[in-house]
Structure formats: structure tokens, C-alpha cells
Write a structure and sequence with these properties.
By secondary structure, this protein is α+β, with helices and mostly antiparallel strands. It is 35% helix and 25% strand. The chain is built from eight helices and eight strands; from the N terminus they run H-E-E-H-H-H-H-E-E-H-E-H-E-E-H-E.
Length: 212
């Protein structure tokens, strides 16, 4: 799954000369939390709704007229983040997720040849992983621990698909400790007990956490 398939293409942007008042109005109108800042078709920063709010004293801390004047005189360029972490449209979604987690940020502008072509938020990534793990139709999910070596996963898949003739509707192999692998497998059956028994006879540790 690539970033281009999950990103928002019609990106709402701000200019560095826009006032904080104007930027806040845009975030509220479009119900968004991140504004890429673009100047001459180039990304120059990102302003989040939090950046915009923190730039202005809290309501009630100063006269409303003065607060409004400050919002209308402060520019987006004064509050935006200039060192922006970006991602390419052909990057895997899991790579984008790692960037979001590593840098503790809520969005990634998507650049192609230096031009802004989309934006990927933490919500977009979460939805992608929900769809990846969620089974389609009646199914069950098993978790199989196995040695991390060539042929083990193929052996498990062959047993399920060939020996038991059960369709695999989803398969994810997340990172685990060195020398060990975990396969999360969605099976198109509501009763995987025969499969589990066969896998355990082969020496695999199998968990059956829930029905899909």
C-alpha cells in the first residue's frame, strides 16, 4: 500500500503572508488540523491548528479587541514550522507511519519533484491499517509464531490453502524479536480449530484471539 493511495490530493494550503486569523478561519471552515504553507508553488512550512492557537494569548487573558488585532497582525510565517518532514507518493504507508511516530508529528506533506501533491495525516494512516487488518466477510483470525527462516511461512500457507482448502483473506507479518516471526492470518472460516490443531502438531504456537 503506497502513500499515493491514502493521501488527500486536494490540499488546503496557506501562504506565509496570511494572518493567523485567516489561517484559523480556514482550519475551522474545512475542519482540518494542518495547513501546508506554500510560496511560489514550493512548500516552505507547515502550520498546525495548535501552532496557530499557541501564537495568540488565550481568550480572556487580554481585551478582545487587542487579541483580535494581534491575530490580524501576526503572520503564518511567524508561527509555522519551517523544517518540514515530507514523504514521496510512492513510499510505503508503513514508512510514512514510522516517520510520523519517530518525529511525533501529525501529518506529512507529500512531495513529487519538489511540488506539493498531497498530504497524509495520522488519521489516514490509522484508517489504512484498520482496513489492512479488518477481515472482509465472516472469518476468523489466528496468530502463528514460527522460526524466522525461509520456507516457514510458505509451509503454513500451504497447509491452510492446500491441505484444508481454506481461503486466506488477509495476511500480515509484523516485526518480532530476532529469530522469530509472527503471522496474523485471516481465514475464511468461522471454525479454525482443525487448522490450529494441525499447525500445533507441526510445532507452531497458535493463538486464536477472536472471530472476524
Amino acid at each position: 500500500m503506497l502513500v499515493r493511495s491514502r493521501m488527500t490530493r486536494d490540499v488546503i494550503t496557506a501562504s506565509p503572508t496570511m494572518t493567523v486569523a485567516e489561517a484559523i478561519a480556514i482550519t475551522r471552515e474545512h475542519r482540518i488540523r494542518h495547513l501546508p504553507v506554500v510560496e511560489r508553488d514550493r512548500l516552505v512550512g507547515v502550520a498546525s491548528d495548535r501552532d496557530l492557537r499557541l501564537a495568540i494569548p488565550a481568550q480572556g487573558s487580554m481585551p478582545d479587541r487587542e487579541r483580535q488585532a494581534l491575530m490580524e497582525s501576526t503572520r503564518v510565517a511567524d508561527v509555522m514550522v519551517r523544517e518540514v518532514i515530507t514523504v514521496a507518493p510512492d513510499a510505503p504507508v508503513e514508512e510514512a507511519a514510522a516517520l510520523l511516530a519517530e518525529h511525533r508529528i501529525g501529518c506529512l506533506p507529500v512531495l513529487s519533484d519538489g511540488r506539493l501533491v498531497g498530504i497524509l495525516t495520522e488519521t489516514d494512516v490509522l484508517r489504512a491499517f484498520v482496513e489492512l487488518f479488518r477481515a472482509q466477510g465472516p472469518s476468523s483470525r489466528i496468530e502463528v509464531r514460527m522460526p524466522d527462516r525461509p520456507g516457514e511461512l510458505a509451509r503454513v500457507v500451504r497447509l491452510i490453502g492446500v491441505d484444508f482448502k481454506i481461503n486466506i483473506t488477509g495476511l500480515v507479518v509484523p516485526p518480532l524479536s530476532e529469530g522469530e516471526a509472527l503471522a496474523i492470518i485471516h481465514l475464511q472460516t468461522l471454525d479454525p480449530r482443525d487448522v490450529i490443531e494441525a499447525l500445533e502438531k507441526l510445532g507452531y504456537e497458535v493463538g486464536w484471539p477472536s472471530l472476524g
